[in-house]
Amino acid sequence: MGAVEVVKDIYLVASADMTDSRDCSVYLLDLGELVLIDTGAGTSVEQIFRNIEWLGLDPEMIAEVILTHCHIDHIGGAPQFRKRFGARIIMHHLDAEVVELGDERMTAASWYNLHFPPMPVDVKLKKEQERLCFGDQEVVCLHTPGHTPGSLSIYLDRGEKRVLFGQDIHGPFYQEFGSDLAAWRRSMERLLALEADVLCEGHFGVYQPKKSVAEYITNYLDLYGEES
After folding, report:
1. Cβ distance 202 to 180 under 8 Å?
2. What's 97's domain CATH number?
3. Which of 34, 131, 138, 151 is deepest in the core (most CB within 10 A)?
4. How many domains, in total, are found in the chain?
5. Of the candidates 104, 47, 116, 36, the residue with the CA atom closest to the CA atom of residue 76
């Protein structure tokens, strides 16, 4: 299986089942220019290239990579995309320092027995909500802390569907990584308010329609309960 079309012009190009068991779900947006959301752990970049080519697209056209947070299973391939294609790396500034330092502990690289080199971040987002334009498409990046201090969620309205990229909604939450359950609950309420039609999650696939998206988020809110 080379790739999966989620909705028109949005594709799943890597995941633990498709590429490497250490990979998160990696999504490609074909918006006139190619935009990648996360990159996997870095061990399967060549396979991701092939999956993009399988779609009839050219990976050299990847202009931007948006990293949803600083953990290795999401950022590991980013240095290769930046070096090979000159892709701009975009992420929230609160997680960017970890990436620029190549912090083996805070990136969780040591957990995966992987190495992550220090990497510059080209665009550091600082607002609660930032609107980016790729071609004629607006993409909205929301600061949704909880899993990490600088976690991002991303959404866009494509046709009649609102597509939400909510990576690692499920956690996990570890104090040593700066997790904050109270902040996460507030973030999840923001995501519910979007009333997304499609959820592209970071490890457990794609959820639709709107009812299934709301149920997925609400189930985790119920699982983690109220703040003690």
Report:
1. no
2. 3.60.15.10
3. 151
4. 1
5. 116
